[in-house]
Amino acid sequence: MDPSVGPVEELLDAAASRSTHETDRRAGRLVVSHAVWLCPCDAVDEAPTWLVYARGDDGIGWQRIDDGVDLGDVVEAQYLSGCHLDPDAVLLWLRGEWPRPWGRGVGDDPKGADVFDELQRRILAP
Questions:
Q1: DSSP string for residues in 53-104
Q2: Which domain of life is it from (predicted)?
Q3: Does residue 57 contact residue 121 with C-beta atoms inside 8 Å?
Q4: Cβ(102)–Cβ(115) below 8 Å
Q5: Helix (H/G/I), strand (E/B), else coil: 50
Q6: What percent of the chain has pLDDT over 70?
Q7: Could you give the CA distance from residue 89 to residue 66 in angstroms, rounded to a whole number?
Q8: pLDDT in tens, 68-80
Q9: What is the rounded CA–CA span in Å between residue 7 and residue 67?
Q10: pLDDT digits (tens, 9 = 90+) for 20-53
Q11: DSSP symbol at 4
Q12: How far is CA 93 from CA 18, 65, 75, 100, 101, in A?
């Protein structure tokens, strides 16, 4: 497992623990306003794909997405974006040191910057 996986998931857990809102579900899918998928396929070692999503007005939730799972079976988001990147870029984004993770990796959807910005705002909120 890539050494960045543990720190990434610790930061996500800490941010998610501040949210008290439940996430609506429809037909087994999360129904959210904003969501991003982060596929660290540029990792030298194995790393999971993460889904980070809005909860309530200011919170976030997250989960791992198993290989081969269709994202449409997991989440229904009003605004959805994502990218393939290096796990270190995820850490920089979660810490607020890099505004958008594709700046260090290969980005798929730079036009989805507002989705990343909204989720980063929630993650970095006190």
A1: EEETTTEEEEEEE-TT--GGGTEEEEEEEEEE--HHHHHHHHTTSSSSGGGT
A2: Bacteria
A3: no
A4: no
A5: strand
A6: 89
A7: 20
A8: 999 999 999 999 9
A9: 21
A10: 899 999 999 999 999 999 988 766 778 899 999 9
A11: T
A12: 18, 19, 22, 6, 6
The domain total for the chain is: 1
HSE on the CB side for 57, CA within 13 Å? 0
SS (H, E, C) 10-28: HHHHHHHHCCCCCCEEECC
| Boundaries of domain holding 51 | 4-124
At 76, which amino acid appears? E
The H or E element that residue 35 is part of is: strand 29-39
Task: Quote the CA–CA distance of 53 and 81 in Å, as a whole number.
Answer: 10
pTM of the full structure: 0.91
Cα separation, 16 vs 72, in Å, equals 22
- Sign of torsion over alpha carbons 75, 81, 84, 88: negative
